[in-house]
Each structure stands twice: as structure tokens, then as C-alpha cells.
Specification:
With 176 residues, the chain is an alpha/beta fold. Helices cover 48% and strands 21% of the residues. The protein contains 7 helices and 7 strands. GO terms for molecular function: adenosylcobinamide kinase activity; ATP binding; cobinamide phosphate guanylyltransferase activity; GTP binding.
């Protein structure tokens, strides 16, 4: 089973995604966001600590930007939380915030295709969490528009590999 769980910030999407895997004997939790962001921001660090405390002891954790590699190296269920932090880390790595998209977007799209293939090929359950950012105002700054537009591309591509897509609003999951 492959599931994409999307929703707004603080909608309950991570909690819901975790609840889909409670019966699994082994879960690999893939955290693709940059650890430096956690270390530098006390509020973000507190939110990460809440997520960590919720996870059962038998869940393993991998912190990596290589989602395809993490999926291929993992047995059993995998929880990716979240695709938005993965996208941010890839754009950071490619120095994309200040460069022309044409110069780095093909590399991003290759990584996305590799990740989608790894999700499709994975024999266990995969639950991917992502942010839904396309239902708001157009961001004022270029970086916000780039992120919003590309996360929409990421979400659509990963949804193609999933058996189910859930939208979480106010802690309630709606099947799309």
C-alpha cells in the first residue's frame, strides 16, 4: 500500500500518517529535512521533539536527502515526513533559490522521478507526508512561488504512485 497524506500546516497530517503504521512490526521513518534548521530554530526543534516522542521505540529513523536510496535500503514500512522539507533541502543543495530554474530544475525532476520509482518498487507500505500549499494566496517573494509551484509538481508525481491520497483538515482525513 502506498499513501500520500497532505494537508496544511498543523492540520494533523503527520499524526494521521503515523497512525496508519501503528500495526506494522517495523517502520523506517525518513526525515529528509536539514538538521541544521532544527538546530537553529528552537520552535522547530520543539515540534520535531514532539514528533520523535510519538514514535514507537521499534521505529528506526534515517535523516537523509536521498529519499530513493532510503526507500531502497529499507525493509518493511516506510514513513517519509515530509516531501516539503525534502524539496527545500534539494533546492538548497542545488542553490536554486537565487539561480534560474532552467539551470537546476532538471536535476530536481530527475531526483523526483528516482524517488517516485523507488516508492513504486518498494515492497512494503509507504506513507509520504506533504504540505498542501496551493490553496492560498500567491506568495509575494520569488522563493515562495518557486517552492509552491514545485511542491505542486512533487505532490502530483508522488500521488501518481500511490493507491490512496488523503487530505487532512482539522485532524480529519478526507479520501481524495
Amino acid at each position: 500500500m502506498k499513501v500520500l497524506v497532505t494537508g496544511g500546516v498543523r492540520s494533523g497530517k503527520s499524526f494521521h500518517a503515523e497512525s496508519l503504521l501503528v500495526a506494522e512490526p517495523h517502520v523506517t521513518y525518513v526525515a529528509p529535512g536539514p538538521q541544521a534548521d532544527v538546530d537553529a530554530d528552537p520552535e522547530w526543534a520543539a515540534r520535531v521533539a514532539v514528533h520523535r516522542a510519538r514514535r514507537p521505540d521499534h521505529w528506526g529513523t534515517i535523516e537523509t536527502h536521498d529519499l530513493a536510496g532510503a526507500l531502497r535500503a529499507s525493509d518493511g514500512a516506510v514513513l517519509i515526513d515530509c516531501l516539503g522539507t525534502w524539496l527545500t533541502s534539494v533546492i538548497d543543495e542545488l542553490d536554486g533559490w537565487d539561480q534560474l530554474r532552467d539551470d537546476w530544475e532538471p536535476v530536481l525532476l530527475d531526483r523526483l522521478a528516482e524517488t517516485a520509482a523507488a516508492i513504486s518498487e518498494h515492497r512494503g507500505t509507504v506513507v509520504a507526508v506533504t504540505n498542501e500549499v496551493g490553496m492560498s494566496v500567491v506568495p509575494e517573494h520569488r522563493s515562495g512561488r518557486v517552492f509552491r509551484d514545485l511542491l505542486g509538481v512533487v505532490n502530483q508525481r508522488i500521488a501518481q504512485e500511490c493507491d490512496d491520497v488523503l487530505l487532512v483538515v482539522a485532524g480529519r482525513a478526507l479520501r481524495l
